[in-house]
Amino acid sequence: MVGAFQGAGVVVTGAGGGIGAALARRFAAEGARVVVNDLDAERAKHVADEVGGIAVPGDASAIVADARDALGGTVDVYCANAGVAFEGGDTGGPLDEKVWAASWDVMAHVRAAHELLPAWLERGGGRFVSTVSAAGLLTMIGAAPYAVTKHGAYAFAEWLSLTYRHRGVKVHAICPQGVRTDMLAATGSAGDLVLQPTAIEPEAVADALFKGIEDDRFLILPHPEVAAYYQARAGDPDRWLTGMNRIQQQWEAAR
Ligand SMILES: NC(=O)c1ccc[n+]([C@@H]2O[C@H](COP(=O)([O-])OP(=O)(O)OC[C@H]3O[C@@H](n4cnc5c(N)ncnc54)[C@H](O)[C@@H]3O)[C@@H](O)[C@H]2O)c1
């Protein structure tokens, strides 16, 4: 991969910490010019200063134009990474529509792709990296909005890939289980049960992405065992649901 991203214009959303910061560091180490976006302007600046990048703070759903300007007109790689997680939101308690609405960060992916595609199709190249989650292939105990919206993010990445791959657009969907970040710390008892035991460092997610880029793969699985879970779900949905319900019951007993 030496030189592949030398001078490339890369945008990483939600890069003030966690997985996004690891992606920003890795692209910068590969020689890219990196736009570091985060809702939290101070965190964005801190990481941008560290990697010699440019901070473009703000909501990830509306930064493509500013990021493009900051990079001198061209975005080569766009990492749609910003995300939020909430425990709950299922129908076992009061329906909180604000939580559901706030979980649709996939709309930021749709808006970004809409703005990026015309230039990418014209020059026959561009790379869209979506930080989804294993929850987008499987589910997340205790977090219906997260599970549902991550399925949407995965479906959108898949659709982008199948629609534009013959026109030079590369798409990668990163689907990790637990990653040691602030978000994991905030997932509460469900995260403690199902994510913490196999959690990895954000740098391992960046490594998995770069290996996937090298191999030209769409689906990036920093936890390789997720492939077998995904197959099990597709192969026998009832058996898989019974197994997941066992975990749900363990979680209820432990709360
Ligand atoms: N940590 C995990 O276990 C895990 C597992 C699978 C997938 N993911 C996904 O990885 C991505 C990054 O998560 P993380 O664990 O690094 O979280 P994190 O909370 O450590 O970092 C997320 C960053 O995104 C920023 N952010 C949130 N909403 C934003 C918005 N609308 N615009 C701009 N910035 C915004 C936050 O300020 C924060 O700095 C998310 O999409 C998350 O769903 C995380």
Report the sheet with the most strands, covering strand number, pairing sense and barrel closure: 7 strands, parallel
The coarse overall form would be globular
Strand content: 5-15%
The SSE order reads EHEHEHEHHEHEHHHEHH
Helix fraction bin: 40-55%
Query: Pairing-aware structural class of the strands and helices?
Result: alpha/beta
What's the number of helices?
Answer: 11
* C-alpha end-to-end distance: 46 Å
The ligands found in this model are: nicotinamide-adenine-dinucleotide
Tell me the Rg in angstroms: 18 Å
Overall mean confidence score, pLDDT: 94
Task: Strand order, main sheet: write it out.
Answer: 3-2-1-4-5-6-7
Low-confidence parts lasting 5 or more residues at pLDDT below 50?
none
Task: Please count the beta strands (DSSP E, at least 2 residues each).
Answer: 7
Condensed summary:
The chain is an alpha/beta fold and 255 residues long. It contains 11 helices and 7 strands. The chain is 51% helix and 11% strand.
Can you describe this structure?
The protein has eleven helices and seven strands. 45% of the residues are buried. It is 51% helix and 11% strand. Helix 1 (18-29) packs parallel to helix 2 and helix 10 (226-235) packs across helix 11 (237-254). The protein is α/β, with parallel strands linked by helices and 255 residues long. The mean pLDDT is 94. Strands 3-2-1-4-5-6-7 form a seven-stranded parallel sheet, with helices on both faces. It is globular. The structure holds nicotinamide-adenine-dinucleotide. Nicotinamide-adenine-dinucleotide is lined by residues 13-14, 16-20, 37-40, 43, 59-60, 81-85, 131, 133, 176, 178-179, 181-184, 195.
